[in-house]
Amino acid sequence: MGVEGIGARVARKEDKRFLMGQGKYTDDMSVPGMCYAAFVRSPHAHAKIRSIDISAAADMPGVIGVLNGKQMLDDGIGNLICGWMIHSKDGSPMKMGAWRPIAHDTVRYVGDAVAVVVADTMGEARDAAEAVVVEYDVLPAVTDAVKALEAGQPQLHPEAPGNLIYDWEIGDGAATDAAIAAAAHVTEMKIVNNRLAPNPMEPRAALGIYDSAEDHYTCYTTSQNPHVARLVMSAFYNVAPENKLRVIAPDVGGGFGSKIYIYPEEIVCLWASKRTGVPVKWTSDRTEAFLTDAHGRDHVSTVKMAFDADNRVTALKVDTIANFGAYMSLFSSAVPTYLYATLLSGQYNFPAIHANVRAVYTNTVAVDAYRGAGRPEATYLLERTMETAARELGVSPAELRRINFIRSFPHQTPVIMNYDAGDYEASLEAAMKAADWAGFPARKAEAAGRGMKRGIGMSCYIEACGIAPSAAVGSLGAGVGLWESAEVRVNAVGTVEVLTGSHSHGQGHETTFAQLVADRFGVPLDSVSIVHGDTDKVQMGMGTYGSRSGAVGMSAVVKALDKVETKAKKIAAHLMEADESDIVIENGALKVAGTDKSVPWFQMALAAYTAHNLPSGMEPGLKEGAFYDPANFTFPAGCYIAEVEVDPDTGKTKIVQFVAADDFGNIINPMIVEGQVHGGIAQGIGQALLEGVHYDPETGQLLTASYMDYTMPRADDLPSFQVSHQITPCPNNPLGIKGCGEAGAIGSPPALMNAITDAIGNNDLTMPATPQKVWAAARATAN
Amino acid sequence: MYATNYHRASSVADAVKLQSSSDEAKYVSGGMTLIPTMKQRLAAPSDLVDLRHIAEMKGISVNGSRVRIGAATTHYEVSTSAELKAACPAISHLAAHIGDPHVRHMGTIGGSIANNDPAADYPSAMLALGATIVTNAREVAAEDFFTGLFETALEAGEIVVAVTFDAPAKAGYAKFPNPASRYAMAGVFVAKAGNGSVRVAVTGAGSNGVFRHAGLEAALAANWSADAASGVDVDASDLLSDLHGSAEYRANLVKVMAKRAVAAA
User: Which residues form the Aldehyde oxidase/xanthine dehydrogenase a/b hammerhead domain (chain A) (predicted)?
Assistant: First the structure.
């Protein structure tokens, strides 16, 4: 691997600019004549707009324009879309209500945009936005998805009677019911997956620049996938044709899914730039982020897990209600279906599974993919239920899992997925050893002596990453293919630029993608640059989400590197009058194997561009591109163990140990992978112990709209993590890698909740397990 | 934030003059509450008069058993003062656990007291220590100073310049922080005066702000021990309920924090 190649712990190249505060984010972008947008937002969760009076605002200092949704409609700007078609079990297509970038008729959540002010300064724009007078006829609101399905509740969209978007199923219902009826034991639970606000460090922002001379638009935006943004804004929102729209996602400070989607604000900035004749910038503040960034999770499920007399699983039946919020966000429909129910087999050999999922409109902000997207929901449901079953059956949680592990591959589950490789026992054993599982009773006794309740819990997760084979997702309703592209440009002096459709917003691509090149050609890491995030530079790409940049994005780079290597060897063979098949690349030089003949890499590159002496018929230059479409999903898996101490007097939970044993396949940079795992676990701890979005159920006001009430994890909430890797290479991509970006957030919540419920001896506990809730649950058992 | 004019006052008299020059002027000390409120456009003072650089409002002195803390003294200074740590370590401990290092270097004792956030730490110490709040016009007993949620006895334009109190024989403070804001969800300051009288003040939990708890005071006066606090009935009916803690949970926390405060004293 060398010191900079595959497998090396190379420090992140991008960190210098980030740590020195020299990153260049959307809000750092400034162009001559730029003005600022401020949105007028609905203070009501559900209301008819009676009138909008802009007269006072329009006369305020610095105001250039006050624009509304009717004007946007008149200009032909389209509805926001959901890009994945799901059909209900009766065959009908999902019921999608209209989502206007600026509401002109009805507002459906607190924060829905009703007008936008463009002014010379941000302060003037905000002052004028406050002066816009909107009269509403307030309507009753509903924020809870279960309640929204009941008769007599407020109706959000005429297209979706009963607020039901779809009623979808997967698996064999009859076989599942039969197995449950015949089971020796059935564990039943109600599982709630709490609603989360993503909270990337950088809030969303957009800068729209309209060039009237060229009739061309440029959009700087906080996006995880600028090419998808361009495609959607061109094809569906009618902002501009693709060749007249450049989308740039520069440095982006975290996304966690929330920056996949195309939101109203970037469309409005582009449209408003043409309307007003000035470049228009909008930057969200933290309150706006809480109100308008797509939230994650929010499922309510019931589950039945059936066992035979030998404690082998025979069936799983799941019924889930998923809160979609007021509008269908870009990938919302896929999250509780193909990213959730297809993972319900977990690591276990279920003969039969049936899941039913209802997607529901409520008067809350849209819900879409958030780190893990569907897979944390599946893992939480499965692993809480498996742990509960072990307690009910009187079997150790490890033993019950072992009995039921899938042990031969490939394995076809009852819910579409075909697992390609894995060794679940290896991760379980590694985790139990690292956690000293056997020593737990002694630690529990010692803690009891101090008046503390100590508990231990595990979670064996699997996820589907490397999203995704295009034809397969197309057949399931996806509106796009999920391949990736790459282009490798070797410059005349031998330095290398890699253009990729993967976007880096914290993942360290500028380092790991460069390691592939250093490994292949033996060139220094510093001579490799990664170019991404600009539709004028990179032709096309599908972006970063679903732990896909390694398995899919890097595979595209590998394909392009293959082509470059082939041509480089041809040139070197020609220069050294050797046979192409005898050329090897070592230490930055192309050599004739078994001889002392060699051409330095840079000299070969120069020869490609001088073209003075190339093989007959060869084109000059050295630049190759490739598209890679994966053959299958990848299946990272692992075992997490949490050990906690609960203070019964206050209900405060302290995580005293956290072990992660992951199989991500092959690893390019262990340090970056560990960082991804640490971050993921921190978010999982956030979900399990700290974070929860609350809306007032009557008024639909967001109660957790700031860090005074929304508990983000802090350093002192987190333990040190013990991380290890067990490696079964993925057989379906050239690097054998599976992906690591979401595992921590997927695997950790059930391990923590299993540990806390073990500690207090009460299984009736929902996330987040706040001190108040844990205190009450512990007291209920004590009494 | 709306536009505002900043003034740095050089003396108490200067501050009063600057403040009185506008109907919409406000004093600012550390600004730990006012500035975020202004950033959210929930407050719009035309003028801010900064009290942090007034010499007569700064510094800590201990004369015999009498302690004086200037109102512009930061939490960091209170938490690290050797004199205070000798005279009343509980108040240094309290100050060391307000907010985070940034807050402790900006926030001041006078600002905290004048704001009287129902979840702030200092009001409980003032009440339990029987402190005197010294303003530019008068001296007010802590008992009479804290009058309700974000309400004090301060008149318009009046400035807290210092607090004074007699060093207690014993004192302790324990709080359970709100998981999100880290303000006190229940903070209990216990103090036993030189004459043996006991005062117990509770912050973060009361629906009308900081208050003294008669039951805990009586129990601890009879028997200064954590166990004595355990036997006290804490009534939940006048306590706050919110997302993070019901009144019942806060009642439990008051008792637990009282025990821990006594143990730490």
Answer: 20-140
> What is the model's pLDDT at position A781?
83
One-letter amino acid at A350 equals F
Task: Check: CB of residue A189 under 8 Å from CB of residue A384.
Answer: yes
**Any B CB within 8 A of A430 CB:** no
Min Cα separation A100/chain B (Å): 27
Q: What is the CATH number of the domain that holds B12?
A: 3.30.43.10
Q: Is A288 on the interface with B (CB under 8 A)?
A: no
Tell me the ipTM for this assembly. Answer: 0.95
Say whether residue A694 is in contact with chain B using an 8 A CB cutoff. yes
Q: Give ∠ CA B92-B95-B96 in degrees, rounded to 5.
A: 85
Chain A residue nearest residue B40, CA to CA: A287
Q: Are residues B258 and B175 in the same domain?
A: yes
Return mean pLDDT, chain A: 97
What pLDDT is attached to residue A513?
Answer: 97
Residue B207, chain A, CB below 8 Å: the answer is no
Does the pLDDT at position A1 exceed 60?
Answer: no
Domains of chain A: 15-20+483-628 (3.30.365.10), 31-139+204-292 (3.90.1170.50), 140-195+296-395 (3.30.365.10), 420-461+635-783 (3.30.365.10)
pTM recorded for the entire structure: 0.97
Please report the beta strands in A326-392, taking only residues with DSSP state E, as ranges in sequence order. 353-361
- Asked if B244 lies within 8 A of A770 by C-beta distance, the reply is yes
Q: Which of the listed residues B151, B166, B181 is the one where a domain comes to its end?
A: B166
Closest by Cα among B232, B121, B132 to B176: B121
Does B253 contact chain A (CB < 8 Å)? yes
Whether the CB-CB separation of A362 and A144 falls below 8 Å is answered with: yes
* Cα angle A194, A197, A199; round to 5: 145
Q: Could you read off the pLDDT of A138-147 as tens digits, one per residue?
A: 999 999 999 9
